[in-house]
Amino acid sequence: MTLDELVEEGAALSRPCFLLREGRGERLAGYWGGEREDMLNTIPPEATAVASRTHVLTLDPALFAELGLHRLGDPIGLFATKFRDGHACVRAERASLPAFPDISCSGRRLFALPGSSFPPFEAVCLYGGEGVGRWLRSLGLERHQYEEALGEEVAREYQGEFTRRAPFYSDVVDVIVGGWHMMWPDDDFYVPREMRLLATTLRDAEPYLEVWLSESGNVSVKERTT
């Protein structure tokens, strides 16, 4: 397997995505920070568990529909929530009203441009063509043994190409909607593609935030650090 062949396999697996950035583009697709008029940051005095919450990000669900995630019709809002017991997390909240065009938010306006998401090496091992399978078998490896295959020089070269091509490493993108996900240091395995990555935040990282959609339609948030 040569680097050109491996890159060709990656290109065949590339997925469409949207690249969101502040103030650059014609299509308003999200808000970063600030406060939503319909979901205020203020916590009512009668709340007993939540100490504070802060709006992080709201995304237009039309982006997900255009990427083939038709089960999502409601805007997704991410909120950094602190609880009175000291626990803190980022949660995804959805509400059918108001629709995204009617949301009033004081946050920074994010605009969407179409992009392409190049897959990491783990995804090529798992989902590449038969040529990838033959190459792995020639090394005595199965498709799920991508960590062992990373010892090969061509795999390391591919990772360099991934770094060059992947939107994640861009310094002008605030949020990636859709596309391939990466394997992080705290992952035990590469998350199967049946779990769909909705968005990855790059702005104000770390932590990076990943928004996931399960097969059952549940939305969850993972906080990632390098």
Q: Overall 3D geometry?
A: elongated
Count of spatially separate domains: 1
Termini separation? 30 Å
Q: Which sheet architecture does the biggest sheet show?
A: 10 strands, antiparallel
Q: Which spans of ≥5 residues are poorly predicted at pLDDT below 50?
A: none
How much is the average pLDDT? 91
Quaternary organization: single chain
Radius of gyration over all CA atoms, rounded: 19 Å
State the helicity in percent bands.
10-25%
SSE pattern, N- to C-terminal: HEEEHEEEHHHHEEEE
| CATH class type | Mainly Beta
Q: Which structural class best describes the helix and strand composition?
A: alpha+beta
Portion in strands: 25-35%
Number of strands: 10
Number of alpha- plus pi-helical segments = 6
Structural commentary:
The chain is 22% helix and 31% strand. The chain has 226 residues and is an alpha+beta fold. Helix 1 (3-13) packs across helix 3. The mean pLDDT is 91.
